[in-house]
Design brief:
The chain is an alpha/beta fold and 396 residues long. It has 14 helices and 17 strands. Strand 10 and strand 11 form a beta hairpin. The structure holds thymidine-5'-diphosphate.
């Protein structure tokens, strides 16, 4: 049974940065109700009514994984480790984005699947890329053209696909008998622990726990045999899944993480009700802090036009009354406006200057990278604000 625990209100599509805020474009801005539910049977946490993927993953999709040094390093290290451990003869990635993971392998060994055509166009020049949504039709097409796949990788993608049945059945189709599916997604346990409610937005149809993934894959003749904690996106998990009769044994760290999750209460609705209370509190605190700063005539901006910020801004109703603008290094976000709250986005070269007193860490998942980069700002008295794990002004 699905039970709702969190209502984040009316939200726009997190990646729908607006090119103009003319009356006409504001009129056509799409909103939906972001309500989060818990399935008491399989412990899966999901968006109650997912948005149609065709509205989300278009040829204007903004996120480019390669733009972050942290992500480039993380994917390179993952590629090396996975290759060493499983020695796959071929590799397929579902949601290959701009090729940040696949480019670490010999090009004849890899297949990319990426429905956002602007991204598929980038990788098509280097390796075979299918510009399609992942489903059974595509899995059959791939099987006809290539051999079965030994290593299927998918980072921050499976949690975006509403139809898990179709997804896992299609994976089963193309996976070799000794093959391994490796999935990375933000961890529910981290979300609960650091109160990062902004991991909930339209694209994150699911925020997985190990408990839920183990229950789900079972239904599709697959088996979770290992899991690993990784640092990306504020705390993620890398799941290792094989076919039912494959040789892989359940690892000790899987047993230990399953136990940890039970201790955290990820199999218990009450945990989520309490979390929802903390989220409401976080909103109150953030708005009151911003009000206080504004009252003292300080200039506040937001650092990183993240999808996560879309949730925070729209839930807390933060707009240009508080933030002058948002800075972001991504070229195709610059000159646009934040979804729903219509704050201008500009380049840090222009916007992150001496006039800024406070910067809200929209990209809090890159806190270390950003604090390292912005030592000058901090030295001259500039301050970062964060809302995870709690609302505060960072002292260092
Ligand atoms: P991302 O981590 O993909 O978060 P989400 O999935 O919530 O969108 O986005 C990080 C954004 O922050 C991306 O648009 C690039 C931007 N960014 C900066 O502007 N400066 C930086 O120093 C870093 C690390 C990121």
């Amino acid at each position: 049974m699905k039970k709702d625990f969190l209502n984040l209100g009316k939200q726009p599509i997190a990646n729908s940065f607006l090119s103009s805020i003319s009356k006409k474009s504001l009129k056509s801005e799409y909103f939906y109700n972001l309500i989060i539910s818990f399935n008491t049977k399989n412990f899966l946490v999901s968006v109650k009514k997912p948005v149609n993927p065709k509205i989300q993953y278009t040829n204007k999709y903004a996120h480019r994984a390669s733009e972050s040094q942290t992500m480039r390093k993380a994917f390179r290290s993952a590629a090396i480790k996975l290759y060493k451990r499983f020695k796959p003869k071929n590799i397929m990635e579902i949601g290959s984005n701009d090729g940040v993971f696949l480019k670490n392998f010999a090009r004849q060994k890899v297949i990319g699947v990426e429905p956002c055509r602007n991204l598929a166009e980038i990788t098509k020049k280097k390796f075979t890329t299918y510009p399609n949504f992942w489903n059974k039709v595509l899995s059959k097409k791939i099987l006809k053209k290539h051999s079965e796949v030994d290593l299927i990788f998918s980072a921050n993608t499976i949690s975006h696909i509403p139809n898990l049945k179709e997804t896992f059945e299609a994976i089963f189709n193309v996976m070799s008998d000794k093959g391994v599916l490796v999935i990375e997604d933000p961890s529910l346990s981290s979300v609960i622990k650091i109160n990062s409610y902004d991991q909930f937005y339209d694209e994150h149809v699911y925020v997985f726990s190990t408990l839920a993934v183990e229950n789900i894959v079972k239904k599709y003749k697959l088996r979770l045999f290992d899991v690993q904690k990784i640092n990306t996106h504020g705390g993620s998990l890398r799941y290792y899944i094989c076919k039912n009769n494959s040789k892989y044994k359940k690892t000790k760290r899987l047993v230990s993480i399953l136990n940890e999750e039970k201790k955290t209460g990820l199999d218990n609705f009450n945990t989520f009700k309490k979390f929802a209370g903390r989220v409401k509190n976080s909103k109150k605190k953030l708005v009151s802090l911003l009000k206080k700063i504004k009252k003292n005539n300080n200039k506040i901006i937001s650092y990183g036009a993240t999808y996560k910020s879309t949730t925070v801004f729209n839930y807390c109703k933060i707009d240009t009354r508080y933030f002058h603008y948002v800075t972001d290094t991504t070229y195709n976000k610059q000159g646009k406006f934040t979804p729903g709250t219509h704050i201008p986005i500009i380049s840090p070269e222009i916007g992150f200057n001496d006039s800024v007193d406070y910067a809200f860490l929209g990209a809090w998942n890159f806190k270390r990278e950003i604090l390292n980069k912005e030592k000058k700002f901090i030295k001259r008295g500039g301050k970062f604000i964060t809302h995870v794990p709690e609302v505060k002004i960072l002292s260092k």
